[in-house]
Amino acid sequence: MAKKTKRSTTEDDGVAESKEEMSKQMKKLREEMCESKEEICKRLEKVNQDNQEMRKQLAEILTGQRKQWDLHTNGSSGDDSDAPRPQSNPVQAPRYRLVFKSGLTDKIEKGQPINISVALVDGNDRTVENGPLASATVELVVVNAEFNQHNNKYSWSREDFEINIKKAQGNSEAVDVDQSLKSIVSDGRFNLVQGIQCHSGSKIFRNSGNKKVRLGVMVVSPTEERVLEGLSNAFFVRGHDRDRSNNRSNTQSGS
């Protein structure tokens, strides 16, 4: 009986030790799990901070690019005078442009018929003979000689060109009804044929005073693609306005 009691006591002690050991292992496991959770939370927090920093840097980059783009597209010279205006910031040169194949004399008489040859060319200066642009309607105008005076800029905008066009004044001779910009050139509209046209009969009905001007040619028919306007050499337009003015002054003096 005593031996049986002693064996039971030993077994109870073994069970107690096993329970204690298991409890220690469970406690250690819980501690390790807590440490793992804490480490994971720290890592997630760092990732979140890194993402916030990256978003901040990206926003700064986008803001800077947007400011540069606005400055490029909306920049102006700030010149509000009536003097001939230079080209604004250069834009990409169009694929096609108009050119004068024939030059003009240094002096042209007011009302004298002008004979010119105009062609539509590509970036390699080859005449464009096919496509809708090859039969476009073009118009002759007079522009300030200062516009593109160095003959080396092929990237102005349509607005830059139109600003420098000499317009007909209110008391000027009658303007052709088909002229879109009230040009001081009469009979200045014609169509290209296979990208080129020789035109005669146009007349400039206002003299240029003591300043030179240029003959310009622009597409006026609707097109989906920008065509750069053509410019001639600079010249004077002489007329009899000064003589009539002098006669008027002499008449007033003699009265």
TrEMBL record:
<dbReference type="InterPro" id="IPR012416">
    <property type="entry name" value="CBP60"/>
</dbReference>
<dbReference type="GO" id="GO:0005516">
    <property type="term" value="F:calmodulin binding"/>
</dbReference>
<feature type="compositionally biased region" description="Basic and acidic residues">
    <location>
        <begin position="16"/>
        <end position="35"/>
    </location>
</feature>
<feature type="region of interest" description="Disordered">
    <location>
        <begin position="61"/>
        <end position="93"/>
    </location>
</feature>
<dbReference type="Pfam" id="PF07887">
    <property type="entry name" value="Calmodulin_bind"/>
</dbReference>
<feature type="domain" description="Calmodulin binding protein-like N-terminal">
    <location>
        <begin position="106"/>
        <end position="240"/>
    </location>
</feature>
<feature type="region of interest" description="Disordered">
    <location>
        <begin position="1"/>
        <end position="35"/>
    </location>
</feature>
<protein>
    <recommendedName>
        <fullName>Calmodulin binding protein-like N-terminal domain-containing protein</fullName>
    </recommendedName>
</protein>
<dbReference type="InterPro" id="IPR046831">
    <property type="entry name" value="Calmodulin_bind_N"/>
</dbReference>
